Amino acid sequence: MTNTKKLFVKTYGCQMNVYDSERMAEALGSEGYEQVNSPEGADMILLNTCHIREKAAEKMYSELGRLRPLRDANPDLKIGVAGCVAQAEGEEIMNRQPLVDLVVGPQTYHRLPKMMEAVNAGEKALDTDFPEEDKFLKLPKARATRGPTAFLTVQEGCDKFCAFCVVPYTRGAEVSRPAERLMGEARDLVARGVREITLLGQNVNAYHGAAADGTWGLARLIREMAKIDGLERLRFTTSHPNDMEDDLIAAHADCPELMPYLHLPVQAGSDKILKAMNRKHTAAEYIRLIERIRAARPDLHLSGDFIVGFPGETEEDFQATLDLVETVGYGTAYSFKYSARPGTPAAERKGQVAEEVASERLQRLQTLLTKQQRAAQDDMVGRRVKVLFEKPGRKPGQMIGKSDYLHSVHVEGPETLRGQIAEVEIVESMTNSLTGRLV
Ligand code: SAH
Ligand code: SF4
Ligand code: F3S
User: Fold this and answer.
1) Distance from C-alpha of 374 to C-alpha of 211, rounded to nearest angstrom
2) Which atom of ligand 3 is nearest to the CA of 52?
3) CATH number for the domain harbouring residue 259
4) What is the reported pTM?
5) What's the half-sphere exposure (Cβ side, CA atoms, 13 Å) at 405?
């Protein structure tokens, strides 16, 4: 009889970490670990961490502190730290928090089963290499049926070196996975029940994967995947404006499987700040790009990321960000106070913006973005949209899914809707979702 052990994984940060957490659970699954939904009673707890802002790393340390009583109750409990804090801080994590048995970076988690052998023998295990081998090739193949949506990492790492960002250091250099392997994985996901795939990369539109007939860009990959029978929807995230090539813009016009939603961060609206950030484009170039994408797909919902309080940002620079937001108009947006990250060029700069000033700017920006988001969502009322249903809602008889534009939509409907795309008329705009009626 095999003894199944309980694994609890907690994920912080971006979608790529969500994807990695799934892969780590699968890797440990082949070692007899079964995933559970709460840390209580688990034999192994793995925190998959994010290093992007200071608060993100601090969250991890407070979470680790909260695990102390669980270890006291069960001395055999193993605790591991994965992800970008693991990569950035390595052994320091074990020094600061002796509860930690294992530290594994984002590029070495295929070695987890081996590392667990050491941990189970009472040793500590640390691996934050950037190995030559492709971790995805070494991972076990999962066979379980899946929900209707899935992530698929196609590109990892980043060579852009924005002055504020840790990703090039925690995830390493930009690497694209071979196209045919991704096609195989997409077919496999569809065979297991997936109807919508979101292609992931820190810089996903820089994708350039090797294929038998040369190199495929992201547009080619999307066009080929769109031909897979049963794959109804494709999305991709996150993109950099400078890699938004013509063919990818064209795909938004002529590939019906590619959804009308695009996350295209700009970070700031002042050319001086954009330059200091090393974004390598101006505000006007970004605005022009958005016009071209909207010409290809007029109903596109645009999403973005913004940083306020970058070193050297004046009130006038900040005003330029507000102006850009007014000009572009976002359906969704994420905005952050600049956080100085050790080891990044911007952390050393003069002109760090005072905390109160940054907070006040963030509030003004968020007021504007929330207003735009509200308007975009309210605008859906009375329209007919296609919804891919994912799961039952909180109320009995309710089903929840996502529209083409990525809005959450709930309707009264049977559970057999799960995995189906149905036409829905939107009747009401709620705080974070839309209420609809099956047509
Ligand atoms: N690769 C993506 C984003 C990765 S990080 C891109 O280039 O757009 C996600 C977001 O976190 C960034 O877009 C940025 O808005 C924010 N971010 C990154 N580093 C930050 C920092 N040091 N302080 C505040 N926000 C940051
Ligand atoms: Fe970070 Fe810039 Fe790379 Fe995005 S493009 S991951 S913000 S360095
Ligand atoms: Fe965070 Fe690493 Fe993603 S720093 S945002 S988890 S790439």
Assistant:
1) 43
2) 4
3) 3.80.30.20
4) 0.95
5) 24
What is the total count of domains within the chain? 3
CA–CA separation, 278 vs 299, rounded Å?
Answer: 31
Residue 2 is predicted with a pLDDT of 57
Which residue, 329, 347, 378, sits at the end of a domain?
378
Residues within a 6 A CB radius of ligand 3 = 13-14, 16-17, 50-52, 83-84, 166-167, 170-171, 202
Where in the sequence is the domain holding 417, given as residue range(s)?
A: 384-438
Both structure tokens of 324: 């850009």
Q: Is there a single domain that holds both residue 35 and residue 16?
A: yes
Same domain, 204 and 341: yes
Q: Which of 240, 263, 281 to mutate to test the pocket of ligand 2 (most atoms within 8 A of CB)?
A: 240
What secondary structure letter does DSSP report for 346?
G
Q: Is 51 helix (H, G, I), strand (E, B) or coil?
A: coil
Q: Indicate if 362 and 215 belong to the same structural domain.
A: yes
Percentage with pLDDT > 70 across the chain:
100
* Rounded CA Rg of the chain: 22
First to last CA, the chain: 51
Pocket of ligand 2 contains residue 158 by CB under 6 Å: yes
Q: Which residues are bridge partners to 332 per DSSP? A: 303
Per-residue pLDDT of 205-258, as tens digits, reads 999 999 999 999 999 999 999 999 999 999 999 999 999 999 999 999 999 999
Nearest CA to ligand 3 atom 1: 50
Name the residue at shortest CA distance from atom 1 of ligand 1.
202
